Amino acid sequence: MLQERVPRQPDDPEFCYVWPLSQARAAVTELLAGLDAGGPDAGDASAVEEADAALIRAQEHYWYPEGGSTGVPGYTAATNSEQGANGDFFDDDNDWIALLEIEQHLLTDGAAGDLERAVELLELLRSGEATDPGLPSPGGIWWTQADWNDDRNTVSTVPAAKLALRVHQLTGDAAALEDALRWLDWTRGALLSPEGLFWDNVKLDGTIDRTFWACNQGVPLATEALAHEITGDRVHRDRALDLVAAIEEHCSPLEEGGPLDEQPLQFTAILLAGMLHAEALLGARVGGRRTVQAVAERLWRTRRDPATDLVTGSR
């Protein structure tokens, strides 16, 4: 199990919330991909594989088969040694975990990664779609099933669309493709800004949180590129390339001290992963490798702790 922070703080939970655990597993999945590309030596490979297995075991302590408010099974936000899985259901948490299962399934030709669990989580996300036609900007997926929040977010809706595209790609589920395209269209209609970047969420009264988070650009970019690969429709390629241009103009990812350097590191990582995925599908014009190299070198030079070689948190 992981703890929330190092060093542990007095008000920290016994074990970390499922969001940082999912991102730790995402990092390990990237390292596993590097192993297949001839990266670390055998000793390092063994350590990465052991870390991956440990994180998967830890993840299952958050599984709640009884389901949340919709009654569909999923992962809760928290777990501890007394209660087990507990807390609120967040649809974006379940997005990330489902996508990790898909990524590992693809990475290993089905030897790892739980495709059945990913399909099960797609049902949870379907149950989280807002269906009331009287809502402002009807549609989208609620950020959480908790009754203290009524936001529909880019980060809950577009990763679900990416998941649905992958499920369609792997299983032939036609309804999953319909879901994915509807969720993409909703996000563009409700949360695409005039600058070409995606805002964060729309609230129950129609108010829009106009924050530009890096993760809210990276996932739509990769998802539009994947939609182009699956459907062949050029509109998805054009949308992806338009988003690349907006990221370059408004986030200045190649510049030290630019807007991207003010983002939380985990959000930056999601943007960079999305750029690499889009580049793999659409070609070098996306600039993913160039951007990743520039950001990595900048972080190593300006924000690395020389005692540990770890990059410190957000500015």
UniProtKB/TrEMBL annotation:
Organism: Brachybacterium rhamnosum
Keyword ATP-binding: no
SUPFAM superfamilies: Six-hairpin glycosidases
Any GO MF annotation of the entry: hydrolase activity
InterPro entries named among the record's database cross-references: 6-hairpin_glycosidase_sf (IPR008928), Glyco_hydro_76 (IPR005198), MUG_Protein (IPR053169)
Alphabetical keyword list: Hydrolase
Name this protein carries in UniProt: Glycoside hydrolase family 76 protein
Domain of life: Bacteria
Gene3D superfamilies: 1.50.10.20
Keyword Hydrolase belongs to the record: yes
